[in-house]
Amino acid sequence: ALAVVNAVDENGKLLSPTKGLIDLLEQRLKSGSTPSTMKHAERAHRFKNVVIPSLNRATNATMNNATLDRPWFDYDSDPRSLQLLFDFHTVSESSQIGTTRLVRDATLRQVNSDAWGGWSEHNVRVIKIDEKSEGCDASPNGLIAR
Question: Potential cystine with 71: which of 33, 59, 76, 119 (Cβ 3.0-4.6 Å)?
Answer without folding.
Answer: 59
